[in-house]
Specification:
With 199 residues, this protein is α/β, with parallel strands linked by helices. Helices cover 43% and strands 12% of the residues. The longest helix has 14 residues.
Amino acid sequence: MPERIVSPKLLVVEGEEERLFFSALARYMNLSDIQILPIGGKTVLRGSLKALKESSGFEEVTSIGVVRDADDDPKGAFQSVRDALRSAGLPFPDEPLVPTKSDPRVVVLILPGGDERGSLETLCLKAVIDLPEMRCVEAFFRCLEKLSIFPRNRDKAMIQVFLATKPVLRRRLGEAAQAGYFPWESPAFEVVKRFLRLL
């Protein structure tokens, strides 16, 4: 957690990739008043939120957003965030994307959105799925299947292959977002934009 909070709007994210991604999207949306805080993984969310509440400047905070991947259990992921907020003595919403009526206001986003399983990579994959180069990416994965090779996390693997199609290779999703490799105008990103506007 930061030594000092410098913005009234806080966005708590899992790690550095998410920080880079959300900072790129916030810049695209001309949102300059959000402080993005990577915590180093969902397993430390509870302790990080408690530390956040004790941080210098917290008394000036008006809204807090928390982002977490759904992984294989969207409802469980949301419940985990609610439990962490409650444990830290912070307001907790009844459902994702519905802010609390409290001070500070708290809103939670479980990626990729809705009741879908997946992650930030799943969301980004939806945004690029219709790009011409994705036909090549999909052909590559069909070839792997014929060889009985199945990546453990297909969405993350597909994003990596998509990034390999770019003139300058960015191995990290966050760096790719900073470089403008994702089409921010895609309808796939509407749920994330709506979330940021709720802060």
